[in-house]
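Narrative summary of target 7.
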Amino acid sequence: MAAYQARLKQFEDVLKEEVIDIKSLRKLCFNGCPFECGYRSVCWKLLLNYLPCKSCEWGDFLSKQRKLYTHFIDEMIVKPGLDASTGTHQDDHPLNPNPNSNWGTFFKDNEMLLQIDKDCRRLCPDLFFFQKATDYPCKDIIHADSRVETLRKRVEQCVLQSETIKVDRKGNYNKVFSRKRVSEEYMVLPDGHEAHWEVVERILFIYSKLNPGQGYVQGMNEIIGPIYYCFAADPIKECRENAEADSFFCFMNLMSEIRDLFIKTLDADSQCGIGYMMQDFSNMLQTSDQRLHQRIEELNIKPQFYAFRWLTLLLSQEFPLPDVMRIWDSLFADDRRFHFLKCICCAMLIEVRDEIIQGDFPHVMKLIQNVQDKVDLQRVIAKATEIR
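Modeled conformation, tokenized:
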């Protein structure tokens, strides 16, 4: 206990400086950020280059960024939602064939929103947190007097309208729903409340609108999830209250570093992209443990079978959320963090090397795809540090 208190004091000393010593902060965070006093949230915001290093600038900077995010909500959700709920867009008609019309854009957004909604509803299924109501919903959207159509209701309308009429042999007409009603698939909160997953949905929708060249790619929900949870579960009220806006900008900064992993057209011949990263990972494993690499090659188990998900989603689907956050502490703290990600992946395989060397293809494939059940996280991080 005394050692832990001393460690908390180290974080306090670093974070109270007028100019944050990022090098010292990285060294501390690499061994794990404490949840107490909101230290992890502040550290992640610094390590993801969201907060400036001068602590005296934090107040004005955060106020400016949070107002900017409110503006995004107003322009991309509130105003279009209000137009949709009243059934009118002043300058065109729903049947306007122009794809750049307001209605054309609205319908195109709905296609993207259906996938975002589906992914966000099932975010971290083992954790009830994302299904719970947030204490800080977007009042401009869920207020009783608001006529804004929420993203959830837009999705529900899309789903409920997908029904067909079939005629049986006797000439009777029957309605056949092609998809289940949303309310039958997921718990939906009453009007006036927002679940945490709906907040994540809104973040991803706005991100996609601001990045039309890339849009939303399945798996981005697994990247924003731990960031939002970190801020929304923080012990400091101000952090929880502004978790949505702060998560958005931290997610933007992180995606600027890893967006190439979500672009399918980048292959192994590129100096970026998931194909190149998987090849680099394979080379690292060969250097770290040649016999293990050789056995995996003999079994014809390609990195695409397992490392694609590990690297693209930063291991967010391989471990329980608390462990993912511990991994991300080290990942964000390392100035070559995506190099260290590959080190962690190698360490995971080395931890179960004996079973891999002795096993056949079915056993090893099952082992690798569920490796989190076989390894100790602290040992993995320690081994990854050696490899680095």
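Residues 58-86 form the longest helix (29 residues).
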